[in-house]
Write a structure and sequence with these properties.
The chain is mainly α and 297 residues long. The protein is built from 13 helices and two strands; from the N terminus they run αββαααααααααααα. The chain starts with a helix and ends with a helix.
Length: 297
């Protein structure tokens, strides 16, 4: 065989082999970029490649929690690096969720967990919100029982968070809810205001609140009203108000109680303190005493 022809054949084979290797590397690189995996380079080390898949933009009809769940599943399935989650989520937000994302600093906006917490906090979606929804849930019309059960399970999961709590912690959360229900409306409002995370904290809040009420009532009952020159206080028993009779001829009509308690603009500071301090104290003491008597009856 002619050496020139043999050399041409070998060069053609080498070119074909190089073309096949180049196409193989291109397919491998495209696959890595599509799934969002990292490429390893001997010179520069691991190089992160931005994911090619994109999440759909949020709409006004979307449930924010459901949208975040769908986004997390898409990012997990596509094997996106977690460092890219926040940057991929930001352009897809709208409304209040977008406002929460825009109000964050650049450093916090790069962390997906902080972005998720800011969105849920802006929309007032917490474990307490799902607890109320779980207790007050009503079956919508034309809804199958399986859908009702699924919605209750969703509210329960968001309330008790079983993925991050043990069975004992979830049981304590249920006991704390029942505890707040039976201690009374005022004590429950005080406990809910402070948002305790454990049963022990809720019990301490309830004890401090009720002890302060007992101390305040004891102090008020021990106080005696100042002597008044206008006679004994009127009857405090509840009943219909007496009808207003016209003032006798020659005497001015009595002023409303607000004007009687208000200081006179023309009086001196000494006269004002003497004329207004005693009626104000009498009115406050009568009101507190009336409230206590109503509670005791």
């Amino acid at each position: 065989m002619d050496p020139a022809a043999l050399s041409a054949i070998l060069e053609a084979l080498d070119s074909r082999r190089e073309a096949e290797e180049r196409r193989r590397e291109e397919r491998y690189t495209a696959l890595i970029e599509r799934v969002g995996m990292g490429m390893t380079s001997a010179a520069t080390g691991p190089v992160m490649v931005a994911p090619k898949a994109r999440a759909q933009k949020m709409t006004a009809e979307d449930d924010p929690e459901a949208y975040l769940v769908a986004f997390e599943r898409l990012a997990t399935t596509a094997a996106w690096p977690r460092e890219y989650w926040a940057s991929q989520l930001g352009p897809c937000l709208m409304g209040e969720a977008q406002a929460a994302y825009r109000a964050m600093t650049d450093e916090d906006a790069s962390q997906y967990e902080l972005v998720k917490q800011a969105i849920l906090r802006r929309l007032n979606i917490t474990g307490e919100t799902h607890r109320v929804r779980f207790r007050e849930f009503q079956r919508p019309a034309n809804t199958r029982p399986r859908v009702v059960a699924q919605r209750l399970c969703d509210h329960m999961a968001q309330w008790l968070n079983p993925s991050q709590k043990t069975g004992i912690q979830m049981g304590e959360a249920i006991v704390m809810e029942q505890f707040c229900h039976v201690v009374g409306a005022e004590t429950q409002a005080w406990i809910r205001r402070h948002n305790p995370t454990t049963l022990e904290q809720a019990v301490a809040l309830a004890e401090n609140f009720e002890d302060s009420l007992v101390s305040a009532r004891t102090t008020l009952l021990d106080c005696t009203p100042p002597s008044s020159t206008k006679g004994p206080p009127p009857n405090l028993a509840p009943g219909p108000r007496p009808s207003k009779s016209p003032a006798p001829s020659g005497h001015p009509a009595p002023l409303p109680w607000r004007q009687r308690l208000a200081p006179s603009w023309g009086a001196s500071s000494r006269d004002t303190s003497r004329d207004t301090a005693r009626p104000l104290w009498n009115a406050m003491w009568l009101h507190v005493t009336w409230r206590l008597r109503r509670e005791n009856t």
